[in-house]
Specification:
The chain has 710 residues and is α+β, with helices and mostly antiparallel strands. It has an eight-stranded mixed beta sheet, sandwiched between helices. A four-stranded antiparallel beta sheet has the order 3-4-5-6, with no helix packed on it. Helix 5 (565-581) crosses helix 6.
Length: 710
């Protein structure tokens, strides 16, 4: 078959929309080795007949006038669901699977990928609890063919693993279950975790007696974003949404949610809130999400509230002993416009991570009893981007993101001593601490180096933990580059490129460019064996770190949100143009991909520059932001996207909406779009409307496939 069908080979491999999707197919061969020689390509068989096209979605004329502008939406009917919509999804799913299965070479490449990555058990640290010298170690573990992780526990770093929570035991009738989060009590004797069905993330909290292996009788539903934090060994704080009243829609679910205190053995039905918008004197919005964070190293508790994504967090403080239903003396210490990302208490001091006048962040400190941000002292001035700030018993640990690599600093609580924690290799890291335990847990990796579990403790330094088996494949013959590209307005944008060291820059290689650029998320160099298996066969993998991400600090994020969303799209287009101009690839071999909110980015790029790409892979994409506010999680995304209620926001939402930008007769690239039938973050009608519109509009004759997952 003619291009771009070879680049779709891998797009049908993932069995679940929530799993990492595969890259576009490069010439494929046997499992990669440490050899620097390219692997042998798979021979592409003669073309097979393309399956008959899917049934076109029905048109149902609909138009509304918003702020004096007519908006047409012929597939609005999909938002209602129903039998006709279900039939459309079934037909699209069947066609996509048939089309992908028919691609020559697909099965061989799938088998090669499976062989290359088979036998690797994924293990990662979930939490530490119990004695410092002999901790109880909780682990996530997923065997090679498992679709979901189970929870294990071992006593001591080298103890035997024991399975404690297996969500698969509840699967029945085609409904699968997933553990969404897990937090042990300080002594490690109890484990509170959230479990949900069918990928809904609508968690129910259960509590396990770890030693007996018995689940306690109390359960707490409607705990999707629990912010679970133990107060002591017998009680914990948790967030819960209100029970829906008569006539409530899914968009109303998260209004007037609150944080509660649960004591083991109590009836959750009788629980009363300790913090939330129902306490009118706090001045919180009804859409605010909340949490309460105690610390074993402080007599103070912090409560936090935020209306959702990309919004400043509001903080309150109160004596932990006085946190109780209806009568907690909360004192506000930051407001919605104070530019605070994070706070924690240690002793009688509150430490704050602030970007007020410091877009790469600074650390402030003030007295918990009477202090304010106005009286705070500067502990760490702005420098390289502070990616994270974690309190431990011995010190504060700062994670910096500096020029595409991570650095970790250890800061004494008085701010007088600051030393660097040396990492064994250059790459990026994530960190976690416990306030009552010295040291820091470190997960280090790079584009070509697998995740390594490290532990730093003041008296022992950095040591490697043998939590997971070593990765069986050597990728030392691959390399990565960090370059900058010039966007449409002259802004310099970072671009990461991964390829074989022996790559010839003649445009012959296929390339995959990914982007997300939303909510200030930082795209750290990360080890992904699926992409690396493909890169080893001659492909180029690139990541755009454009505006809207947090890669260069808070201002970089703000420059790609709300009215500035199109700047991020321009950055992404510039990254694709760079790959073509410098002959890493050509447009006929360039694939772009984005997930969830990355759908606005990639959908925007594809509808603005369809000539630049061969294929677009949009995974559970948000591609109709003009209507996203009407979804269950929509109100929480207003700080990032804006609201249709505001005339100026509306104009920008309309201008950057990929679905609304689709134009009849345009020669769009081939596309694979995925959607989850039960996805609550991005309802399936979002990608469905986009697919229907592009299928009806495209003039290229290239396939537009909709892979529907259950």
């Amino acid at each position: 078959m003619k291009a771009p069908w070879p680049y779709l080979i891998l797009f049908g491999l993932s069995g679940c929309a929530s799993q990492p999707a595969a890259a576009p197919a490069a010439p494929a061969g046997p499992a990669p080795t440490a050899s620097a020689a390219p692997t042998a390509p798979i021979a592409v068989a003669p073309a097979t007949p393309r399956p008959a096209g899917p049934i076109r979605a029905k048109l149902e004329p609909f138009a509304e006038t918003l702020h004096g502008r007519e908006v047409r939406d012929p597939y609005r009917w999909m938002e209602r669901g129903g039998p006709v919509f279900d039939a459309f999804l079934d037909d699209q799913a069947g066609y996509a699977r048939g089309a992908l299965t028919a691609i020559p070479g697909r099965d061989q490449l799938r088998d090669a990928l499976h062989t290359a990555n088979h036998g690797v058990t994924r293990i990662s640290l979930a939490a530490l609890a119990g004695p410092i010298g002999a901790p109880r170690v909780f682990l996530w573990k997923r065997e090679p063919d498992d679709d979901t992780a189970q929870l294990y526990v071992r006593d001591g770093w080298t103890g035997a693993d024991r399975l404690v929570v297996d969500p698969r035991t509840r699967d029945a009738g085609g409904v699968h279950h997933t553990i969404d989060y897990a937090t042990p009590s300080p002594d490690g004797k109890h484990l509170a975790y959230g479990i949900s069905a069918s990928g809904s993330e609508d968690s129910t909290i259960e509590v396990l007696d770890v030693d007996r292996g018995a689940v306690l009788r109390e359960t707490i539903d409607r705990a999707q974003y629990a912010n679970l934090a133990w107060r002591d060994n017998r009680s914990f704080f948790y967030w819960r949404r209100q029970a829906p009243g008569p006539g409530a829609t899914r968009a109303d679910w998260f209004k007037n949610s609150a944080t509660y205190l649960h004591v083991l053995g109590d009836d959750p039905a009788a629980a009363q809130p300790v913090f939330g918008p129902m306490f009118k004197d706090l001045g919180l919005a009804e859409e605010d999400f909340s949490g309460v964070t105690p610390s074993p190293r402080s007599r103070w508790a912090l409560a936090q509230a935020s209306p959702g994504t990309s919004a400043d967090t509001e903080y309150f403080v109160a004596p932990l002993a006085q946190v109780a239903p209806g009568r907690t003396p909360w004192r506000r210490v930051s407001g919605p416009n104070d530019h605070i990302r994070q706070m924690f208490a240690h002793g009688d001091t509150i430490y704050a991570l602030s970007y007020a006048g410091a877009p790469r962040y600074q650390v402030l400190a003030f007295d918990a009893a009477h202090g304010t941000l106005a009286t705070a002292k500067l502990v760490v001035p702005e420098g390289a981007l502070i990616d994270d700030l974690e309190p431990a018993a011995d010190a504060i640990y700062l994670l910096r993101f500096d020029g595409g690599t991570s650095r970790i600093e250890r800061l004494s609580y008085d701010g007088k001593q600051r030393t660097e924690v040396a990492l064994p290799f250059a790459g990026t890291a994530e960190i976690a601490t416990q306030p009552d335990r010295p040291g820091v847990q470190i997960w280090a990796e790079s584009w070509t180096h697998p995740v390594t579990d490290l532990r730093f403790e003041p008296e022992r330094g950095v040591r490697t933990l043998a939590l997971r088996p070593p990765w069986p494949i050597d990728y030392s013959h691959l390399t990565s580059e960090a370059v900058t590209v010039t966007s449409a307005d002259g802004t310099q944008v970072p671009l990461s490129i991964v390829h074989r060291k022996d790559l010839v820059l003649d445009g012959a290689a296929p390339a995959l460019l990914e982007g997300y650029q939303a909510y200030g998320s930082i795209t750290r160099p990360g080890f992904d064996p699926l992409f690396l298996t493909w890169v080893d066969r001659g492909g180029v993998f690139a990541t755009c770190h454009g505006r809207g991400s947090g890669d260069l600090g808070e201002q970089w994020r703000l420059d790609g949100t709300r009215h500035h969303k199109e700047r991020g799209v321009e950055d992404f287009i510039a990254c694709g143009e760079y790959l073509v101009a410098h002959k890493y690839t050509v447009s006929a071999r360039l694939t772009v991909t984005g997930t969830s909110a990355g759908g606005i980015l990639v959908g925007g790029a594809v509808t603005r520059r369809p000539d630049l790409y061969a294929v677009a892979l949009l995974r559970v994409p948000m591609v109709n932001p003009l209507r996203f506010e009407a979804t269950e999680g929509g109100p929480a995304n207003v700080p990032e996207l804006g609201t249709v209620a505001d005339p100026e926001d509306f104009q920008h939402l309309l201008a950057t909406d990929p679905y609304q930008r689709v134009a009849d007769g345009t020669k769009y690239p081939a596309m694979v779009v995925t959607g989850g039938r039960h996805d609550v973050r991005v309802p399936i009608w979002q990608p469905a409307k986009f697919v229907a519109r592009v299928q009806a509009a495209t003039g290229s004759g290239k396939p537009i496939l909709f892979r529907v997952e259950s």
